[in-house]
Amino acid sequence: AAQLVKKNTDASLQEMSDDTLLLVLSHLGTLDQLTCGCVCKGLREAFARVYHHEVLLGEKCGSSALATDHLLTWLMLHKMQHGVRVLDVAGCPSLSKAAVTRAVCGSPTLLRLNGTALGGSSWTPEQLLMLVRQVHSLKELHVDCRTKGASGAMLR
Fold it and tell me: Where is the F-box domain (predicted)?
């Protein structure tokens, strides 16, 4: 009698080609990627090979309530210095503008920032001026700005 041999066709994320892994990662949000990366050293190394160019923590991806200053600082140190072009933190109530500013200033390739409804208050003109002066690559900036009490010279 012929014996049927079941072949194991399950592939681990660690063994996938970079192109396949990139395809899998494209279907995961940033927080899901981080969760997978926390599983083991091998997955962290695999994800590091094929980092995303977008960090999406805002309302659109449904993880805005989970985004914290600590998480954004970790992302800045481990991911954002390596080619991130888009940072979306819109509607993240637990993120401070100081943490976003540090992350953006540590991202030399950042082209677009969406930081509306962040941390419960608007950006001041001074905060935005500092941000724009330090990140020369920034082409698109979406924020809400508080102008009450700002000088006329600052608003120009």
Answer: 14-50
